[in-house]
Design brief:
Length: 91
């Protein structure tokens, strides 16, 4: 049993397990950007041993949101851009 071993277990926040495109945007502009995109469609849409691209799973519009959120996240970007609709549309 893992909880009786010396293995350290950590519960990661939700940005480490973004399972659907609904959670790509996040609850607010100040929330953390997604770190890991995880979706069962990566398995379902595989061609042989080749997984689909994130664009094929989440769509171009949602990936634009992810890239924008990464640039506005203060934990990930040394010089984050200010969040807002105009900055999103310019990105």
């Amino acid at each position: 049993m893992i909880w009786l071993s010396d293995v350290s277990l950590y519960i990661l926040p939700s940005e480490y397990n973004v399972r659907s495109s609904v959670h790509v945007v996040g609850p607010s502009p100040s929330s953390a950007a997604p770190r890991i995109l995880h979706n069962t469609k990566f398995h379902k849409k595989m061609t042989g041993l080749t997984p689909p691209t994130p664009r094929a799973v989440y769509g171009a519009w949602n990936l634009k949101k992810v890239r924008y959120r990464l640039r506005t996240d203060k934990q990930l970007s040394p010089n984050p851009i200010k969040s807002g609709l105009l900055n999103f549309l310019k990105s």
